Amino acid sequence: MDTATCQSGSGSGETIALVGATGSGKSVLTGLIPRLYDVTEGRIEVDGTDIRELTLPALRATVATAFEDPTLFSLSVRENLTLGRPGATEDEIAEAIDVAQAHFVHDLPFGLDTRIGEQGMSLSGGQRQRLSLARAVLTQPKVLVLDDTLSALDVHTEALVEEALRRVLHSVTGLVVAHRASTVLLADRVALLDNGTITHVGTHSQLLASVPRYRYLLAADDELDDGAEADPTWCTDDERRCAREDSEIAESSERASRDDDFGSLHSPAREARR
Ligand SMILES: Nc1ncnc2c1ncn2[C@@H]1O[C@H](COP(=O)(O)OP(=O)(O)OP(=O)(O)O)[C@@H](O)[C@H]1O
Ligand SMILES: [Mg+2]
User: What positions does the domain ABC transporter occupy (predicted)?
Assistant: First the structure.
């Protein structure tokens, strides 16, 4: 790696989607930013400062992360949510819950005061992911790093979260690991990772048009999208009737020829020709 810079503070940051096959290094790369791992060469800068020069509290206030398999602590929901921002107001907490579609917390026995991991409160994977996303959003970071954070959500909830995230990402620098076109579309640009190396950077449509490997990785989604966007072939009732009659004629002549073939296998004439 050379130098990776995150500029923030101008009011609108760029969001980069990281796309790559499983094991290509997406999580390792995203883990470098909150310094779960340190770079062995090159540097990562936020607003011109090497992240290794920031104190841990300063780094945590600058970079918020939400991972696929998030860590929640045996604390109340509120304490878990405000770990990155202890002074958050009720309105800010409510907004973060809204962005992450984590409204289920209000149905817990003691609402936001329910202790996670106790009182029989073991949350589902998708609930944990949404809490961790709300926590990251509540931090109001300069850099938001999301590694497969929506993977456990059903497509409808995912779409709601993405819609809200779009607003949040508008004002931060974002790094979003994406497996689906809908998540990629949250980003301004896409970096394609292959075996630990960023091989291409471009917009979604540029990569789709010019990089077969990128097309391949998002292929299942494209097929769905193509299907959803396919122009229906409209025809009048008469055309439909003609088409049905044509297909019936074709079917019956095919049946006749099949019968004929079958019959001819046993026909004396055919036997005689052999
Ligand atoms: N802590 C670690 N120590 C050593 N190797 C690791 C570590 N974490 C990941 N790797 C290896 O680094 C490579 C990239 O892993 P990484 O988790 O970044 O993949 P990924 O692109 O996030 O994949 P996925 O889409 O499955 O999450 C893999 O070969 C993996 O085995
Ligand atoms: Mg990963």
Answer: 1-220
Q: To test the ligand 1 pocket, which listed residue (28, 68, 145) has its Cβ within 8 A of the most ligand atoms?
A: 28
- This prediction has a pTM of 0.77
Mutate to test the pocket of ligand 1, among 18, 27, 38 (most ligand atoms within 8 A of CB): 27
C-alpha 23 to ligand 2 mean position (Å) = 7
- pLDDT by position in tens, the chain (length 274): 555 665 554 445 899 999 999 999 999 999 999 999 999 999 999 888 999 999 988 998 899 999 988 888 999 999 999 998 999 999 999 999 999 999 999 999 999 999 987 554 688 889 999 999 999 999 999 999 999 998 888 889 999 999 999 989 998 999 999 998 989 999 999 999 999 999 999 999 999 999 999 999 987 654 444 443 333 344 444 554 445 555 554 555 554 444 444 333 333 334 334 3
